[in-house]
Structure formats: structure tokens, C-alpha cells
Amino acid sequence: MVISKNQVLDTAQQLPVFPRIINEILHTIDDPNFNFNSLVKHVSRDPVLTGQVFSIANQAATHIHHDLQINDLYKATSLVGVMKLQKMVILASMSNHFEDTSGGNLPEILWERSLATGLCAQHVAAFSGISDDTALIAGLLHNVGKLWLHRFLPQAYRSVLERREQSFAPLCRIERETFGVDHAMIGSWLAEFWSLPPQVMDAIRYHCDPDQAEGNPYADAVHVAEVIGNALDLAPDSSVTYLSEGACKRLGLSWDERAEDLFGTIETSIRILERELFISHPVQAAN
């Protein structure tokens, strides 16, 4: 059975549209004329996000004055802060998209791995001085090819996963032997279909082998994030089976005390997220 790009793109029409809000946020991250009101407008369109923003803002306000109550969305959003709001919007939109795309049958572990890798990639990117929100998106979507395989070829892909468990061979290699392509390539086709930025598309394509990504730092960040997540037992059983020295060098990562601090920051932030959001269910907010 050989999977073609046309087959993926034809069936992609049956998937929910990739959340437009994600692209809008990606395109405004580095815009010097970015208008804070646009984020507030996005939040106002989603009652769940609106409630979360008010909840977080009022929790913060009570630390200032126990009788202080925030009832204005703009004020609440200002108190929450742009970076936290962006992460909330991205994670909520991605959670809903994963659930819609899978038809409600998405294995929870796939979302957990994607979330952990996305957050790890965000921290790695911040450590290395590249866009952490772009890295977050790339990390969240790095396994979207697995999502497609789970949705459209469930029995065949179950056999692939069983073969991987029995042989301990690299998953991407078994996928290529079975389908002619691996989940990374399928994911990059979907990213192209959704008109995601080329850096995100290539990060998905090369996260298993970042040395082939021609210096795309987001492929490096997602690759390293998977390894870190696996090492910290945050994203166990990932597809990446080795750590690229080239990716570490390009990101300026050396395994010294700064790296240990990075590991600690990643583990702490995700453990907090687990407690607050009950990671076994689709995420609707972010720390």
C-alpha cells in the first residue's frame, strides 16, 4: 500500500479546516504594528476562552485586593498578558482541532505527546532565541501525520504500531516500508494544504531527521523537544530515537548547567500544566 500526496490532499478535504486563528496569530507575532485589540476580539468570539481569561484575571486580581473583581474583557486580557493569552488561544484551538479531526476517537496519548513536545519546543526556542510561538505550533503539529493515518487507515496503522512494538525498529522506517512515506511527510503535506508557514511545514517534515532541514531552527527545536520530552518521561515512546548533535549545535545547546536549568524549567511548567488542565483530556487553557 503506497500513500500518495494526492490521496492525502483529497482526504484532507474531509478534515476540519485548520483553525484560522492559529495562522492569524502566527502572522502577527513579529508584526511591529500588532494591535492588542485583535487578540481581545478573538477571545470574545469563544465563550470558553472568555471564561478562562476572566478566571485567570480575577485570580490574579484577588492577590492585589481580595474584593477586586474584573468584569471588562479588555482589562482582563491585559492582566493575563499577551504571551499567556496567545498560548491559551493556540492550545485551545489545537485541542478542538485534534478532537474534530479524529472524529472523537483520538488516542489520548497522541494529544499528550503533541502537547508535551509543543511546550518543550517552545522552551527550547526561547532558550535559543527563536520564535517560541512558531516552535509551539510546529511541536503541536509534528505528529499530525499520525493523526491522518489513525483517521483514514486505522487497521493498517495499528499493524504498523504493533510491528514497531515487536521489533523496536524506528517508526518512520516501518511507515515508509508499509506506506512508501512516513507520518512526517504526510504531516508536511497537510501543513502545506493548510497554508502554514514554510518553517512550520519543514519542521514537521524533518523533525525525525533535522540535519536534512537545511538549517531550519524549528525542525531542530522540535527534534530536541521530542528527545527532552522522552528523557523527562513527558512524551514517552516518541518517534525520535537519537539526538542530533547538529541540531544541538545549531540551537546553541550544550549540556551544561544552562541545559540543566532548561530541563528543570520544562519539567516544572508541564507538571503544573498537568495539574491545572488534567492532561488526560483535551486541553482548553494554558499556564
Give your account of this protein's structure.
The structure is a single chain. With 287 residues, this protein is mostly helical. Helix content is 69%, strand content 0%. The chain contains 16 helices and no strands. Helix 3 (36-44) packs across helix 6 (82-101), helix 9 crosses helix 12 and helix 10 (154-167) crosses helix 11 (171-179). Mean pLDDT is 78; it is low at 277-287.
Q: What's this entry about, in short?
A:
The protein is an all-alpha fold. The protein has helices at 5-12, 20-28, 36-44, 47-64, 73-80, 82-101, 108-128, 132-141, 144-152, 154-167, 171-179, 183-193, 198-206, 217-231, 245-251, 257-277.
How many distinct beta strands?
0
Shape: globular
Query: Quick one: CATH superfamily of the domain at 5-17 and 96-277?
Result: Hypothetical protein af1432
Computed CA radius of gyration, to the nearest angstrom: 19 Å
H/E element sequence: HHHHHHHHHHHHHHHH
What separation lies between the terminal Cα atoms? 43 Å
State the low-pLDDT regions, or none: 277-287
Number of DSSP helical runs: 16
CATH architecture of the domain at 5-17 and 96-277: Orthogonal Bundle
What is the CATH C-level name of the domain at 5-17 and 96-277? Mainly Alpha
Largest sheet: none
The whole-number mean of residue pLDDT values reads 78
Helix content: 55-70%
In the CATH scheme, what's the topology name of the domain at 5-17 and 96-277?
A: Hypothetical protein af1432
Give the helix/strand class: mainly alpha
Q: Tell me the strand percentage band.
A: under 5%
